[in-house]
Fold this protein.
Amino acid sequence: MELFDSHAHYNDNKFDEDREEVINWVYDSGVTKLINAGYSLESSIYALQIAKKYNWMYTISGISPNDIPDSTGEIEAQLDTLVEFIKKEKDSKKIVAIGEIGLDYYWEKDIAKREIQKNVFIKQIEIANNFNLPIVIHTRDAVMDTLEILKNHQVIKRGVFHCCPLNRELVKEALKLGYYISFAGPITFKNSKNANEIIELVPLDRMLIETDSPYLSPEPNRGKRNDSRNVKFMAEKIASVRQKPVDEIAKITYENACRVFEIE
């Protein structure tokens, strides 16, 4: 059984002491495709450096809402640098999406700074369209504004709601707009009220699975550092809810990820 972890962060400092060893364990466990996700300009550059070491690993590049610089000048400078970075690396075919990008109002209560998040999100949608790439969306406590932006600023290649909040209306609207839904550790949590309903709601051909390593470890490893070997627990949870063999769910989500990210 081969698995595709569609979102992990091996550029995170929690892997500094054993990164290469963990990545080798991951591949040996059956995870034969993986997206190493950027979330800032610096982390996007580092994510690509790591991905280039492994022919089965890819990356996404972008500035998340929680990593937007404070000054307008620095925001513009980083976005310009991001464009030049992607342009330079385009031929490597390692950068498969712009992300993770989006809105996060959980940490940001200031209205003016929320407007900045919206503007940076829109500008990165434009970057994705210019490079003919999908986007990977981070949204937290910002459902209505996220959907409004996506409805008013069409993304040519659509993309993925990463670690998608288990919100019925968000998922319904995201599917209508043509996006994929990526399930992470929270679907396995015992206190996750909507997980089964959302898993039933999403068509099999629009599902991805991810770990968001090193965060959000699924049951039975909740509370420990996460890594991509745990992506099997998301496949098992979906298989249980949809009453399918787990290897079938692994195959479907693998093919879905290859399709949305245009990986052969």
Remarks:
- The mean pLDDT is 97.
- The radius of gyration is 17 Å.
